[in-house]
Amino acid sequence: MPGAVDQSGPRYKHKLEKAPKQADKYRDDYQVRKKRVAEAKEKRIGKFKDGAGSRKEIKGAEDIRKARVEKQKKMEKNARPSKKRSFGVHVPKPRLVLSPVIEMKIQLSWAPTLCLWASLIGKVLGEPIPAPTGKYNVGAQRFVVSFLDEDDVVWPNGVSTEYLVTLYYPTSDKKPCPKPYLEPELVELYEDLWNYNISHLTSTLRWNASYLDEGTGPTLLFGPGGWGPPTDGSYIVISDLVSHGYVVVAFDHVYEQPFVRYPNGTGVYGLSPAFNNYTLAWVEELHAVRVRQQLHFIDYLPSLVAELDAPFKTTDFGAFGVSLGGSAALTLALESDAVAAAINVDGTNWGRLNSTSDSDLKKPSMILGFGGHNANSDPTWRNYRAWQTGWWRLFSVDGSVHADWEDRTFWKIFGTTATMGPIDGNRMVNITRTFIRAFFDEVLLGVEQPLLDTPSDDFPEVHWDEIQNGS
């Protein structure tokens, strides 16, 4: 959610209705007595100033005055600036007049100092996920989008009323201090099932960051795999795209994903990441729900962008996703003229994609597969190959398994009992980022990418399985 949702941003303030206080005899009596004591003190001080009153009254008033003076002095003393410290070294007073550069280094503001200490502690307690490779930092906002669907196979009673969307966008705002990038409830699920050691992983995602003044690159639509991990579990590739100027709209289907966090902090559990009690017909219905939600958002986005006054593009989308989300991405390109290109990351094709000539996108597309997963081994991809008339590519990666196409390929570095490929996690991260961005750079930005046309010695693990330029 890449990082846990920060509720400190200005967008999600909620008005609280405060109930009137009930009558409380003891509280009211206390307030009355407190008021009487204060009035008596003021009266005695007044007599002292006027020179009236008895000697005892005057002495009592003087004691009160002295006590107030002492209290004021103590408050002023405590309010004085504390002695400056830089990296734990005391800077005595008086001190030499230093150059502005040295002065700035010594008088570190609190925020960078805290981040410095956080980074030092992080070397022991935390581990940053792979940093984005672009020039921009990453901002995010999360929204609840109202949408009635009366054929939702995972919602209570089969009727869903909303879905979650996280907008990831480039920002010039400074990076915040590193924070855990996964929700603790999600971490616990994966630790309990497969002994992943991921609670210490951090990112520098800034929630509710400001938008770029100069505009952004194309907008991409992303869907996660079926029943997890949610979009947070693909943040490594998402953040890299955003750092290069893209905006990524990430969808989370509530009650399907193992755990999601609403903008107001509410957490909702869904299906277990190990869920396997399903039929093919049920998956077809779930896939259809995913597609309907994203098609709805394509129509809704222009009004949201106008409301946010954001510089995000609302036409010529790119779409990509993992597993079930990958099939949904290709289906979006099939169903919507607003989607210009799509990537299926290692997902079996569902729905119209398994039809005959009706599955022809007539648009640029790409499929990525684990080792040995290609159009010869997957009948749904073989059907796809048979009917495409547009530009498309298929690549597979030796040493990888299905889960290596998500952040789980990085998680495995820290240990797990899950079945993962032997390919190095950081290496797989690099392959995933490189090929996905190369595709969108070429087909959406018009920047030629020779990597997509011919095998490269830089990627000996990758097979160029299908290189089709259209008919």
TrEMBL record:
It is an enzyme of class 3 (hydrolase). Its EC number is 3.1.1.47. The keyword Aminoacyl-tRNA synthetase does not apply. Residues 17-28 have a biased composition (Basic and acidic residues). GO terms for biological process: lipid catabolic process. Keywords: Hydrolase, Lipid degradation, Lipid metabolism. The keyword Cell membrane does not apply. Residues 1-28 are annotated as: Disordered. One of its GO terms (molecular function) is 1-alkyl-2-acetylglycerophosphocholine esterase activity. PANTHER family: PAF ACETYLHYDROLASE FAMILY PROTEIN (PTHR10272:SF14), PLATELET-ACTIVATING FACTOR ACETYLHYDROLASE (PTHR10272). This is 1-alkyl-2-acetylglycerophosphocholine esterase. The lineage of its organism: Eukaryota, Fungi, Dikarya, Ascomycota, Pezizomycotina.
